[in-house]
Amino acid sequence: MRGEARRDYAGLDEAVARCQQAVDAAAGSDRNQALYLSRLGVALRVMFGQSGDEADLARAIGVLREAVVVQDADAGDAGLSQFNLAEALLSQYELADDLTALDAAVDAFCEALELAGPGHGYQGMYESELGRALRMRMRFERTRDQADLDQAVRYASHAVEITPSGHANQGRFRFTLGAALASARSGEAGGSGEVGSGEVGSGGPDGSMTRTGLLGAVASCVERFGPGDLDCVLAPQAVRAAQALTEILRGELEPDLDAWWRVGMFWYCRFVALPKPADETELDRAVDASIEAFLPCFIGGETVPEKLLTVVAEAAAEQVIEMDEHAEKFGDAAEVTRVMALWQRIYDAYPADDADRFAFAFGVGHCLHVRSRRTGSRADLDEGIAAMRDALSGAVPGHPSLAPCLLGLGNALQNRFEVSGDATDLDQGLDW
Q1: Are both 282 and 346 inside the same structural domain?
Q2: Given 301, 330, 357, which residue is the final one in a domain?
Q3: What would the pLDDT profile of 231-242 be if each residue is shown by its tens digit?
Q4: Residue 266 domain flag
Q5: Residue 210, domain extent
Q6: Where does residue 426 rank: exposed (0-12), middle (13-18), buried (19+ CB within 10 A)?
Q7: What is the C-alpha end-to-end distance of the chain, expressed in Å?
Q8: Is the pLDDT of residue 51 over 80?
Q9: Count of CB atoms situated within 10 Å of the CB of 12
Q10: Which residues are CB-neighbours of 27 under 8 A, at least 6 positions away?
Q11: Which residues are 226's β-sheet partners?
């Protein structure tokens, strides 16, 4: 990942051209006209994100307004055109601090939600984005209307509530809710400062920000990050806020996964925003800080950006080794099961051709063996031995983890002999 260039939208010109052709070919009575216009508008908004050309965004907004006009209110995707328009209007707000565009975005999100109705497949997305827009409006206006913040929390909370666990958007919705809650806790509706667009607001008696204020500031930077606002994660005061929050989190006995996740996203966004080529020291610092922040999240079962998953899993492996040793000596079956799940997660995060991967699969089998000793489950013992054998079949000769893994399999086979009395297990255990 280090030194990697930002994403290149190859073929985007062609995508816009094809969408335009579909719009041109559709007759005025074509029932898919709104869909074609929406797709063209979305493609143009993505084009703006790549090019930064305001003309692309203006054209996207114009096309999406047309889509809203021709949309069939009774169609199954009713509200989608309003939603896409609202997203483009948010981009306009972020580009130029245009409050008119922000107000229009809030109205469009509300219309999308009303047209979709309860139980619609996109309801969670519409509510979450409406909550985000309301929070943006509260932060923009000098009056900082508490009603906007209250509604932001309500919509974002409901979006999380109705979205099934494990859904692809669950992490995104939780982030939006967390940002709204952080604003509420920090009293932003009363007029605190905002990182990334001015000075860091005061919170403590010495003029420094409180933990809640720092968390709200970092969350705001991540939420605002996008093609129209890179400075929010590049500004020195934003970096200081992230560093200060990190120091606080390091001193806490129990990891606050939500706070760590926001810190991790801040540094990840900063890595993306740093000009390429950039100072390698700055790039490495951003990556290392991201890994530190995402490590407790990975251990706690939270999502981690795909491009950081392997390096975070690599860092987690060192910690899981210690957890494994503790679970084997002192842990109950539940603790062993938690460690086993982590070994599986690390295994899944590694590339299929990585030489270390077999050791993580072996860790799963080892935990099954340990758990069988806690519960007396013969099924766990058999499954653990099978998993260890399968893992070892993919081991690279001479790998430093091979010898202890072989010893572990031998111990498991000997343990099964003690349970079953089958001399074959004993012979194989001695051979290992």
Answers
A1: no
A2: 301
A3: 888 888 889 889
A4: yes
A5: 192-301
A6: middle
A7: 39
A8: no
A9: 16
A10: 33
A11: 229
